[in-house]
Amino acid sequence: xxxxxxxxxxxxxxxxxxxxxxxxxxxxxxxxxxxxxxxxxxxxxxxxxxxxxxxxxxxxxxxxxxxxxxxxxxxxxxxxxxxxxxxxxxxxxxxxxxxxxxxxxxx
Length: 107
Known about the structure:
5 helices; extended
C-alpha cells in the first residue's frame, strides 16, 4: 500500500539499497561485463537479478533507474573497497562493554 499525502495523492517513499546489495552491485559493476551491459540498459532488471526486493526497486528515485553509461570498472572497484573497508573500520573502532565485579573484595 502506497502512503498518501493530505490531498490524497500517492507518495512514493525513497528507498536505499542494503549494504549487502550495495556491495554486490559494486562488485558486479567492477567485474562482470555482461551485468554491466544489462545494468546500463535496464537498471531495475539488473537490481532484481541481484536479489534486491521489488519493493525497494520501485521506491528508488527515478534517476537511479534511468539507463545510463557507466564509469570504468576501476571506479566501481575503488567504491567497493571503500565501502567494504569502511565497515571494517567501524567494527575495529568499537569498544565492547565490560563488567567489573568486586564481589568479596576487602574494603
